[in-house]
Design brief:
There is one protein chain. The chain is α/β, with parallel strands linked by helices and 269 residues long. The protein is 46% helix and 18% strand. Strands 1-2-4-3-5-6-7-8 form an eight-stranded mixed β-sheet, sandwiched between helices. Helix 2 packs across helix 3 and helix 4 packs across helix 6. The chain is globular and about 50 Å long.
Length: 269
């Protein structure tokens, strides 16, 4: 594995590169970093040049200015600049949750740079009929962060979304895993304060998705969550099917070998 840093407007991105073959960019959801994708990247490195990175403001990708509200188009520009810096070829792109939405914006703005995009359980709550209720809930979670701290705010959000909260760091775990979980835990406040409300207000360019090489995906163990519901709504609007992937919302972490096999099959199509 090689690692490096890339200066982009307002931040310095930390990235990792594994393997050989066509480029595959993996984009994280909220609070994740390159380490969260390491098991999946290792499974794919025989087939692809896999790029993972810490989104700006998270883990090792430091902001070079004051922290403030994050904008999804800015994160899509980071992905564009990272791919451009590492290859002259278009890249396969996989993103989960927020990462799928970042990929959607990258595809809409830079279609020549995306060979194919797979968006796994994007959190497009503005597509839901009760979008106003979700806006109010996300604002409540951000308020809870200031009032009660990160722990209660994360538990409230995880319960509402139907996804497990990140586990607490455990010193008994292997050092790389414990270090990754500690970084993710430290990212939670940044995610809730600066990303949650603005990112969940995103609406994709549906025409760009119709025109582009685009696949929606959801976990086989995911049922009746907002991520699943928004995928179903978007799939119906675009007239496409949803690809089923192993596991739940973090199936790439809990079932990396099976997840990698499915992702390769989808991209190969």
């Amino acid at each position: 594995m090689d690692s490096g840093r890339l200066a982009v407007p307002g931040a310095e991105l930390y990235y990792e590169v594994r393997g050989a073959g066509p480029v595959l960019l993996l984009i994280n959801g909220g609070d994740g970093d390159a380490g969260l994708y390491a098991p999946l990247a290792q499974q794919l490195a025989d087939l692809y040049t896999v790029i993972t990175y810490d989104p700006r403001g998270n883990s090792r990708s430091r902001l070079t200015g004051p922290a403030g509200e994050q904008r999804l188009p800015e994160h899509a520009r980071d992905a564009h600049l990272l791919v451009r810096a590492l290859t002259a070829e278009p890249a396969y792109v996989f993103g989960t949750s927020y990462g799928g939405m970042v990929g959607m914006h990258l595809l809409a703005q830079r279609p020549e740079q995306v060979r194919a995009l797979v968006a796994h359980e994007p959190l497009l709550t503005e597509l839901l009929p009760d979008a106003a209720r979700w806006r109010a809930l996300f604002a409540e979670v951000r308020d809870s962060l200031d009032r009660d701290g990160a722990g209660p705010a994360v538990r409230r959000l995880s319960e509402a979304l139907g996804v497990p909260a990140p586990p607490d760091p455990d010193p008994a775990l292997p050092a790389p895993v414990a270090e990754m979980l500690a970084r993710v835990a430290a990212n939670l406040e940044f995610c809730l304060r600066y990303e949650l409300c603005s990112f969940t207000g995103y609406l994709p360019d549906e025409e760009a998705l119709r025109q582009g090489p685009f696949t929606l995906a959801s976990g086989a163990e995911t049922h009746h969550t907002p991520g699943r519901r928004t995928a179903e709504i978007l799939a119906e609007r675009l007239g496409i099917d949803i690809a089923e992937f192993p596991g739940g919302h973090v199936g790439f972490l809990t079932h990396p070998a099976e997840f990698a096999k499915t992702l390769h099959e989808v991209l190969d199509r």
